[in-house]
Design brief:
This protein has three helices and no strands. The protein is flat, with a radius of gyration of 18 Å. Helix 2 crosses helix 3. It is mostly helical. The chain has a domain of 52 residues.
Length: 80
């Protein structure tokens, strides 16, 4: 990858998640919900409108729908 990055001006920074980064799935679930319910069909003329829509969704979520995501990982134990 480093050769490819050099060819493109070294402007990319690669980040690798750990093999056992399944906890990130919980964050991915949250962003998928926000994406489907707020962003997908939204039409925002200004950044402030976008921020307001997301904050409104978060407030409504916290008041009516907030719940822990069910942890279902049954994979291998962590190995160093």
């Amino acid at each position: 990858m480093s050769e490819w990055n050099r060819d493109h001006g070294d402007r990319f920074v690669f980040h690798y998640t750990p093999t056992h980064g399944s906890w990130l799935n919980q964050a991915e679930l949250w962003f998928a919900i926000v994406s489907r319910r707020v962003l997908r069909h939204g039409n925002f003329c200004t950044p402030d409108e976008l921020v307001e829509a997301i904050e409104t969704f978060i407030n409504r979520w916290n008041e009516t729908e907030a719940h822990p995501f069910r942890w279902t990982y049954q994979g291998l134990p962590l190995v160093r």
